[in-house]
Amino acid sequence: MEKQVQELEIDVSVIIVNYNSTVLLKNCLNSVNEFTKELNYEIIVVDNNSVEGDIEKQLKNCDRIKLIKNDINKGFGAANNQGVKISKGKYVLFLNNDTVLFENSIKKVFEYAESVNEKCIIGCKLLNEDRSLQKSVYDFPTLLNVFTSNFFLYLLFPKSKYFNKYHLMNRGINEVTKVDVVTGAFLFLRRKTFIDLSAFDERFFFYMEDTDLCYRHKKNSGKIIYYPETSIIHLKGKSAKGESWFKNKYRSFSTVKYFQKHFHGPEFYLSMIIHHIGLFIRSPLFVFAGVLSFNKDLIKRGFYSFLLVFIYPSNQFKN
Fold it and tell me: Which one of 2, 45, 106, 133 is at 20 to 30 Å from 144 when CA atoms are compared?
């Protein structure tokens, strides 16, 4: 009976998806356990069939771990959904395995969520490894910002609400602010709210699942809050190990799936055309920049962009 009561009193379930990134994962787990104080929490790790060793043995000395071992890579959203199903917390925190805490961030966000007592999705401030500010807040995709992103207008108007979906970040906001999207590297909300939203949409294998969740939440009269009064480090891209084919492919595929789900009629077809033109434009630019800078990743990204123009199945253009 005591065990059941204790489980019901968990404040936060921290859910971390892992795939072939054990070193990053251990650093993340150690930082969570070191800096999270005065909070009853659990950690659920969902491993997507990593092949770099036995994940159970590698985590045997880590505290508070509930481990789910998948026999296939189910994708980011689906794996997080698995974690929620066995979670017991009042809140869930979806935390990337390439993040590092250096203060009691989870407690601070928990206390803020309790104080507002509303249906909120909350993201904290993310920092790069050198402690510079990382872009973690952006506007929902629209036909206009799809155009401005693909034709580089966001570089000419970095603080424009109309031309740059990251305009709030470029203005250096440093107060609690209602926004459209907070990135899934640190995404905090009530467990009940997540379940009421029908969880992450598993059609998004990797990328855009956070954008889709925020969109559905806001459409359902919920709030998305940027809470910059605490920070964590996000080693962005480290878990994907560079500009791999996997990363580029699923970033593009998930963008198309978002268009299919939320754009309709002419808006959908125009967004698809703009997206493909953007890939085509980027291909020679990345290759040229890579050759000039002797950067193999940029050269690869250029070839990947070119391939992605042509490899979509025919039904990708169906709305």
Answer: 133
Signed CA dihedral, 267, 273, 275, 278: sign only: negative
Residue 47 tokens read as 């491993």
d(CA 300, CA 286): 8
3-state helix, strand and coil shares in percent for the chain, rounded to the nearest 5: 45, 20, 35
CA distance 74 to 167: 33
Give the gyration radius of the chain's Cα atoms. 20
Q: What is the pLDDT along the chain (319 residues), one digit of tens a residue?
A: 234 434 458 999 999 999 998 999 999 999 999 999 999 999 999 999 998 878 888 888 777 899 999 999 999 999 999 999 999 999 999 999 999 999 999 999 999 999 998 899 999 999 999 999 999 999 999 999 999 999 999 999 999 999 999 999 999 899 999 999 999 999 999 999 999 999 999 999 999 999 999 999 999 999 999 999 999 999 986 655 545 788 888 999 999 999 999 999 999 999 999 999 999 999 999 999 989 999 988 898 888 888 888 776 445 656 5
Domain spans of the chain, in order of start:
2-234, 245-309
The tokens for 40 are: 């009853």
| Partners of 136 in the β-ladder | none
- DSSP label of 141: P
Return the CATH number of the domain spanning residue range 2-234: 3.90.550.10
19 vs 52, 94, 165, CA distance in Å?
9, 15, 29
Tell me which residue of 258, 292, 300, 298 sits closest to 275, measured CA to CA: 258
Query: Angle of helix 296-310 relative to helix 266-293, nearest 10 degrees?
Result: 150
CA dihedral sign of residues 202, 207, 213, 216? negative
Task: Tell me the CB-side half-sphere exposure of residue 42, using CA atoms within 13 A.
Answer: 20
Q: Say how far residue 17 (Cα) sits from the centre of its chain.
A: 11
**Sequence letter at residue 191:** R
CB burial of residue 61 (10 Å; 0-12, 13-18, 19+): exposed
